[in-house]
Amino acid sequence: MADERPRVLLFVEDEPDIVELYKIAFEAEGFTVDDSPNGKSALERISSYTQNDFSRPTVMILDILLPDISGMDILRQVRKNPLFNNTPVIMFTNFSSDDIRDEIAKTPNTKYLLKVQTSPPQLVAIVKQMLGIK
Amino acid sequence: MTLDGVFLNVSIISAISILVAASSFLLGLFVYLNDTKNILNRSFFALTFFTALWIMSVQVAISVPDAAVILFSRRLALAAAVWIGFLIYYFSYYFPRPNKSYQFPFMWVAMVTIVISVVSLFTSYVLSNVTYIAGQQRNVYGFGYYVFAAFFIGSLLLGIYNSLSKRSELNREERIQINLVMIGLVVSGAIALTTNLILPQILGVYDTGQFGPLAVVIFVCLATFAMVKHHLFNVKTIAVELLVSGMGLVILLMVLFASSNQDKAMDLVLLAITIIVGTVLIDSVISEERQKDNLEKLDKDLELANNRYKLLDQARKEFLSFVSHQLRTPMTVIKGYASYLREDGFYNSPDKVKDLSNKITDAVDRMDSLIASLLDARTLEEGKMNFAFQQIDFVKLANSVFEELKSSGIAKNLALSFETAVPSITVSADQIKLRQCVQNLIDNAIKYTSSGFVKVRIRTDGEWVTMSVQDSGYGLSDQVRGSLFQEFVRDSAVASKVKGLGLGLYITKEIIKAHGGEISADSEGEGKGSVFAMKLKVTPQ
């Protein structure tokens, strides 16, 4: 459901080229992109938000193969956090795995997308659909 | 009851005792022949030899009427018993592995054994005489008898201690083996001690001496069982060897005690047939055991090969999965920027189009680099990489790579330094490939360090030149360090920490190896930086 909070995207991705590529499309659509190059710093940031913090992310895009911890571990931690247990999350990777696909299918409000099959405009459209905004 | 034979008046008990002595001796002989170099096999044979000697000495003493022979045989039996005691202690210390709790005091135990056995055999201090009372032999012992008894009982007790003290270190099969052997030795020894020492000397019961040797059958049976069922000494053919020898012995006794020449001739023929057939049987069993061993070995080798194949296959699948992931990243960039070109409003100026073109070119270069790594790895695997060796200045090469890559380090605000102990040093190398290796190490250090420093150092001891690249970057866990120079990264969790295809270091390692050099990686752990070093032979001036 849409709300009045700013469009804040947390993008956890260790490849700077990928971040730069998709940031262009999101910023053009009025999103604030908060990027984190590894899992630990992303989790620290997520746990620092409070209920009254209006800059907290309204949507998250998580890479799976990160230098320190797996994006799936981040997803599990996010879903345990009451502030984010229903936040739309996209697991964004070039790593094909049926096991990961099955786990994500059982997780509400979470999608699994391959980067090579999802152009920046397409990703923005999917995020807007998950947020219920035009 | 007696068997009237050729020159002996032999009772049934004596005949059985002789059989037991022969079985004991043969058991030890077969164990020794199975592995003549093994100290345990040799000591076991010695033990059974002295056991057989003891039994036969006692038998001679009770069968022969000559007083001097009787006295000598009795003394020989005592001397043999001293060696049995020593060997029980010795064997129990070393079987199946030496006791860790103390060092076997071989010199002084052997000396004491020699002294007591020589005194027993050649003097009257242990056994002074043999007399007759009511037709029964009575040993008259000297004061040395108590020393002898203490030595024998002490050896048995130490043997029990050695076996019990190492039980916790043994596996199940070894525990069973040692239990069977030691129970056999201790029970046989205890019975012999009772019948031949305690009952006559302490309780004045003199007609039990001939039964002592029969107790050895307990040891023979338990040791044989341990060999057949529990692989003691790994003697696989012991059962058939003992059976054939036993049969031969029985028939030999029949020959010796045959009542007529006709019976003797028939028994001799039977003995000859037994020996021939027995030898053929033993040979075929040995051959079968060897074939079985070969098949077992082949089976194990096959299982190892199969496991290795499964691991390699799994690694190949994981590698292919990882390669596709890594190649998709630059493809995502190319496709992503191409999609912007289709959309209005993104790239509507020549500068932005040029910027997009540069980004696409960079992505293509990255893919090309990944593919080049794959091809290099393939060439190395097939041993087809060619090298053009020439004399080059290694310091100059390393410095030029450092200068080329410096800018990417400066852009990250890293403190970069290049130190060399010598202004120049010559190595025989393929310039392009060596440059690739130096580039790989310095580039990795800069890439995997977010803040701090990258230090390049060159040192030489005259024979070798070492270039080390130290950084304050992500560091290496033990798990990653183990996989670093491998061709296939097996674990995706590890693979995510190794950029590109993870082949760079494998290729670098193989190139350095082809140059007769070495490469190493060290780190105090994740987040604690790392040091990579390559070592090459210096060309003598």
List keywords for this structure.
heterodimer; A: 134 residues; alpha/beta; 5 strands; 18% strand; B: 541 residues; alpha+beta; five-stranded mixed beta sheet; 11 strands; elongated
Descriptive overview:
Chain A has 134 residues and is α/β, with parallel strands linked by helices. In chain A, 40% of the residues lie in helices and 18% in strands. Chain A has a five-stranded parallel β-sheet, sandwiched between helices. In chain A, helix 1 (16-28) links the parallel strand 1 and strand 2. In chain A, helix 1 (16-28) crosses helix 5. The longest helix of chain B has 82 residues, at 261-342. In chain B, 65% of the residues lie in helices and 12% in strands. Chain B has 541 residues and is of the alpha+beta class. At the A-B interface, helix 1 and helix 5 of A face helix 9, helix 10 and helix 14 of B.
Can you give me a brief rundown of this structure?
The complex is a heterodimer of chains A (134) and B (541). Chain A is of the alpha/beta class. Chain A is built from five helices and five strands; from the N terminus they run βαβαβαβαβα.
Structural class determined from secondary elements of chain B: alpha+beta
The residue fraction in helices of chain A comes out at 25-40%
Percent of residues in β-strands of chain B:
5-15%
- The end-to-end span of chain B amounts to 98 Å
Q: pLDDT under 50 segments of chain A (min length 5)?
A: none
Question: What does the average pLDDT of chain B come to?
Answer: 85
- Strand-residue fraction of chain A? 15-25%
Query: What is the radius of gyration of chain A?
Result: 14 Å
Number of alpha- plus pi-helical segments of chain B: 15
Q: Topology as H/E string of chain B?
A: EEHHHHEEHHHHHHEHEEHEEHHHEE
User: How do the strands line up in the largest sheet of chain A?
Assistant: 2-1-3-4-5
What is the general shape of chain B? elongated
- Could you say which overall geometry of chain A the principal axes of the C-alpha atoms support? globular
Mean pLDDT of chain A: 89
